[in-house]
Design goal:
With 103 residues, the chain is mostly helical. The chain has one domain. Helices cover 89% and strands 0% of the residues.
Length: 103
Amino acid sequence: MQVSEIRKLLQEAQAAYQKNTSATAQAYKELSKSDAEISATIATKAEVQRDLADALSHWRSRALATAREWSARNCGIAAERASEHPASHSPIQIQASKYLGLG
């Protein structure tokens, strides 16, 4: 082999290497950009999900508190009615009121 043939082979190998490296670098840049965009989307959606979970927790606790308030109110009204009109209740209702501590 002559020097010119070796140079030609080396130049061809270098050109192939640079082409391959360039393509790989471009693919890496595109994938990195895509990864950054997806990561930002995931972060945004995770924040929205946390906010929704917090809101749901708040409304569940409010619903429980409201249910307790209304239950206490209803028991008070039932006890008041029972004390005002004891004859209007059946023996089962009177026993249930006594059992529940309403009468």
